[in-house]
Amino acid sequence: MRSPAGFLLCSLLLVAPHCTEVAAQEDKPDPKTPCANWMGGAPGYPGHNGLPGRDGKDGKDGLKGEKGEQGMQGPKGDQGEVGLPGQEGSRGFPGHPGLTGMKGEKGESFFVYRSAFSVGLKERVPHPNVPIRFSKIYYNEQNHYDASTGKFLCSIPGTYYFAYHLTVYLSDVKVSLYKKDKAVIFTYDQFQQNNVDQASGSVLLHLSSGDEVWLQVYGEGNNNGVYADNINDSTFMGFLLYPDLDVH
Questions:
Q1: What is the DSSP secondary structure assignment for residue 47, as one 8-state letter?
Q2: Does the pLDDT at position 185 exceed 80?
Q3: At 1, is the pLDDT very low, low, confident or very high (cuts 50, 70, 90)?
Q4: Residue 197: burial class (beta carbons within 10 Å; 0-12, 13-18, 19+)
Q5: How far is C-alpha 24 from the geometric centre of its chain's CA atoms?
Q6: pLDDT (tens digit per residue) in 106-136
Q7: Helix (H/G/I), strand (E/B), else coil: 63
C-alpha cells in the first residue's frame, strides 16, 4: 500500500507541466474577457470630457430641392403710411351723360322784373331847354314813360340802358340826356345844307326809385334841328338790365 506522501508527489509531478503551460498563456491576458483581470487592480474612474474639436469646413451646397407647397395666408398687416401723389394720368374719354335730375324748387328771385319803353317824335321840336315829348308810342307796357311830360319814371331800382337816334334837318342839333335835373351825356351834330343827318347817343345808368330821365335840346340859339316826318324818325328808348335784388 502506497503512502500518502508518495501519492502527493506523483500528483505534483503530473500537474506541474500543465500549470507551466497555463501560466505561459496567462502572461498576456485577453482584455476582452472578464477573466482578463482576475489578478489585476480595481477599475479606475472615468476620465474628464475632452475639449470640443474645431468646426469643420462647410460642405458643398446640395442640389436645389423641389418647390414646397404654398403656405397658409398670414394675418392682415397694419395699414401703411399714405404714399406720395402719383403723376397725373392721361385724360380719359368722356363719360356717358348722367340721368336727368329732379326739378328743383323755385328760388327766391323767380319773379322777372320788367321796365322798358320805346317812343318816337311826331313833329319838330318846338323849344329848347325843356324835355322833348316823344308822343309816338312803340312800347310802354309798364307805363313807366309819361308821354305828357316826356320823362321816364323809375319804379324798379337797378341798372338801365338808354339810347336815342335823332334825325337832324334844317339846323344844328345840341341835345343832352338828363337824370334828376342834371345832364349826363351831350350830343352835337352840325347840319349840312340840303342834307339829312343823324345824331345818336347811349348810356348805362343806375337809377333809384323815383328818379326821372329825359332828353332835351340845350343851349341858346337855333340848335333845335331834331326832326321827324312820315319817312324820318327820331326815337328815344330805355329798359331795365337787372334790378337791385337787395331792395326787391
A1: P
A2: yes
A3: very low
A4: middle
A5: 114
A6: 655 567 899 999 999 988 776 788 999 999 9
A7: coil
Angle, vertex CA 177, rays to CA 232 and CA 169, nearest 5:
30
pTM of the predicted model, to two decimals? Answer: 0.55
Among 111, 105, 106, which Cα is nearest to 248's?
111
- Number of residues that make up the chain: 248
Contacts of 142 (CB under 8 A, 6+ apart): 114, 115, 116, 117, 155
CA–CA gap between residue 103 and residue 106 (Å, rounded): 9
- The distance between the two most distant Cα atoms of the chain, rounded to a whole number of Å, is 213
178 phi and psi, to 5 degrees?
-110, 150
| pLDDT tens digits along 140-162 | 999 999 999 999 999 999 999 99
What confidence score (pLDDT) does residue 5 get? 60
Residue 70 is predicted with a pLDDT of 86
d(CA 126, CA 155): 29
pLDDT grade for 22, boundaries at 50, 70 and 90: very low
C-alpha cell at 50: 475632452
Element (H, E) at 22: helix 4-26
What sign does the dihedral 82-87-93-94 (CA atoms) show?
positive
Q: What DSSP state is assigned to residue 107?
A: -
- Spatial contact of 225 and 171, defined as CB atoms under 8 Å apart: yes
Q: For residue 224, how many other CB atoms are within 10 A of its CB?
A: 23
